[in-house]
Amino acid sequence: MFSPYRLPGLFTQFPNLIAVESTRHGGVSPAPFNTLNLGLSTGDVRKNILENRRRFFTGLGIDPAQVATSHQVHGEQILYADTPGHRQGYDALITNQPGVFVAVSIADCTPILVYDSKNGAVAAIHAGWRGTVAGIVSKTLHDMAARFGTQAADCYAYVGTCIDECAFEVGADVAEHFTDAFKRFDPKKQKFFVDLKAANHAQLRAFGIPDSQLEISPFSTVGHNADYFSHRLERGQTGRMMAGIIRIRNYEIEDSTKSITN
């Protein structure tokens, strides 16, 4: 049986943390949203979406009342989510409050999850090509530094499943916003191809996060479409995954040793 979610290995060393990326399996939605569609802004029947969310959160031991999300606009606005709830207009959510599950919705764009192991802060970031170009990952990290005292050496970050470079075909109008390090030109197709994973990974590295504390998903929404939704491949008629992170309430972080005690 296919799992409704995958847990990035990087975060499993922290028993006080749940960091997760959903798949398209284990829900009740019919085609073309089959089956675990978690996106409220799709054409799916609302009762199906709510049941899918109930299954997803329950499977993780999370109460839906703990979830903080936003209607995303492919921008660069960052929300300090001190309480759960649904907001409008943010593509990154950060919190240092235990028990608040910050999450973003995805179906080709890049999800990035960050954990500051010293200060107990977490972030969930949605980076489409516009957000990537705007430096939303970098801005989120600097916001965390200003607000929580986050430092690169204490951060662990995951670049999640999104459209892969070999499938993200763009015109010159989009490609011009990326440096040569993150794009290539295909002379046969007369099109550019952009690597969103690499571009966002570079922002994490530029902040100073060690390579040993970074993980990149090996999966693709297009190349592994049987497991993930792809807005582009499925021509907009598809569901949404969710990527999120929460620090569990009943653990305490000891700054002096960075150890976790129950």
CATH top level assignment: Alpha Beta
Mean of residue pLDDT values:
94
* Count of alpha and pi helical runs: 5
Classified in CATH, the superfamily is CNF1/YfiH-like putative cysteine hydrolases
CATH topology call = CNF1/YfiH-like putative cysteine hydrolases
Query: What would you call the structural class?
Result: alpha+beta
Round the Cα radius of gyration to an integer and report it. Answer: 18 Å
Q: State the total count of DSSP E strands.
A: 17
Account of the 3D structure:
The structure is a single chain. This protein is of the alpha+beta class. It has a single domain, classed as CNF1/YfiH-like putative cysteine hydrolases (4-Layer Sandwich), CATH 3.60.140. It contains five helices and 17 strands. The strands form four sheets. Strands 1-2-15-7-3-5 form a six-stranded mixed beta sheet, with no helix packed on it. A hairpin with a 4-residue loop joins β8 (110-116) and β9 (121-127). α3 (136-148) packs parallel to α5 (196-207). The two termini are 33 Å apart. Mean pLDDT is 94; it is low at 252-262.
